Amino acid sequence: MLDREGYRPNVGIILCNAKNEVFWGKRIREHSWQFPQGGIKRGETPEEAMYRELHEEVGLRPEHVLILGRTKGWLRYEVPAQWIKREWRGSYRGQKQIWYLLRLVGRDSDVSLRATEKPEFDAWRWNEYWVPLDVVIEFKRGVYQQALNELVRFLDADRRHHLRRRNRKNTSESDSHRHAKDDQPA
Q1: Residue spans per domain, the chain
Q2: Exposure string for 56-66, b = 16+ CB within 10 A, e = fewer
Q3: What is the per-residue pLDDT for 83?
Q4: Where are the beta strands (DSSP E) in 20-118?
Q5: Which of 43, 89, 96, 136 has the fewest CB atoms within 10 Å, counting from its CB?
Q6: E strands of the chain, at which residues?
């Protein structure tokens, strides 16, 4: 399914762990690494497509992740002619993507690259947030930079939220400890 301009609607997924490292998948039988991504089927919302692709490519279900944010609009990249299948030449230009930033709330062991019969990746690893820009295939680099730049604010907000919760918890624990000491007879 292509839009009028020749772009295929797609979702991109930046999955991060508690250390804000990002999931990086090695495409099956290739030496290229990328974020999970995939097409949006007719009648599917971008969020539904994201959860489907997350399961198909990484083996994770909605209960394993928390959505931290998504891009406001479509981010586009053009695919060089030599990478376009012969039957698509002339009509296909590239991908337009909605990107999601997810936090893994499950365990690393929940990741399963063999969750479906047609796996996309044969290896994976965690990388620092900005590392993918250095190693992603050149024609995707611009859209990766746009997505990472737009979504990093959600990581910062999530980190501040957890720090506030931890500080409140520590404050209430120290207050209750202080009150307990105050209740002790002199």
Answers
A1: 7-151
A2: bbbbbeeebbe
A3: 76
A4: 22-27, 33-34, 37-39, 65-70, 75-78, 94-104
A5: 43
A6: 7-16, 22-27, 33-34, 37-39, 65-70, 75-78, 94-104, 121-127
Average pLDDT of the chain to the nearest whole number:
87
Write down the pLDDT at residue 132.
77
51 CB contacts (<8 Å, ≥6 apart)? Answer: 61, 62
Backbone phi, psi, residue 42, to 5°: -55, 130
What distance in Å separates the CA atoms of residue 65 and residue 61, rounded to the nearest whole number?
7
Alpha-carbon gap, residue 133 to 171, rounded angstroms? 40
What is residue 1's three-state secondary structure? coil
The C-alpha atoms of residue 34 and residue 124 are separated, in whole angstroms, by 9
Instruction: Give pLDDT, residue 31.
Output: 86
Q: Check if the beta carbon of residue 16 is closer than 8 Å to that of residue 23.
A: yes
Q: Based on the number of CB atoms within 10 Å of its own CB, is 95 exposed (0-12), middle (13-18) or buried (19 or more)?
A: buried
- Tell whether the torsion through CA atoms of 56, 60, 61 and 62 is positive or negative: negative
- Specify burial of residue 159 (Cβ count, 10 A radius: 0-12, 13-18, 19+): exposed
The two structure tokens encoding residue 105: 């709330």
Domain 7-151 bears CATH identifier 2.70.50.60: no
